[in-house]
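re: ur question from yesterday

yeah so i grabbed the chain u mentioned. its 182 aa long if i counted rite. heres the sequnce exactly as i have it in my notes:
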Amino acid sequence: MNMLRKNSVAIVAMVLMIVLGTLVGSHNSLAKIRNKAADSFVLGARGDGIGIQSDLRERDNAAYNLVVIARRYLPEGNALIQNVLRERAAAQEAASVKEKAGADKALEVAFRDLYDVLSGMALSEQDARYPQRLLTDFLSAGDRISHDPYNQAAADFNRVLATFPAGLLGALTGIRPMELFA
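ran it thru and got these structure tokens back, copy pasting raw so excuse formatting
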């Protein structure tokens, strides 16, 4: 009887160790894949710092510089200037990938509205060349974002997570699907 109890305890302990090892190993493997894809948002696919986040900063800078020019020709309380400033602040405060994508779209609308007004105004010779350059920079950064490999990496991870047993193990260990920048 004593031998049976010892064997039962050993079997239960071994099963628990196998289950725990499987969960920990699965979590670590899935987290490594997820973290690599998530890091590419900031660090870029090559780890060179050229990712979506750097392009968002470039768009933010272009929007701020457009505001600087606009303040020379429009009153400070101008709704278009205020809208760009408000959308810049929202973009800077956005935390998740999904929030950043939405804020960036709103910033683009505000940027274009202000640009359209400035392009129809008589600007000084010095200022006249900048709005078009800023628009080009803004749109160029947006184009790089649209071709950035982050979304593909996130979608690939989500496909892995949707398979069995990765989906079950991911759910049990707190690994969630990734948000796309869309």
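noticed a couple things. The chain has two domains: 2-45+151-173, 52-147. also The helical segments are 2-43, 52-70, 79-93, 97-119, 125-128, 130-146, 150-161, 166-173.
anyway ttyl
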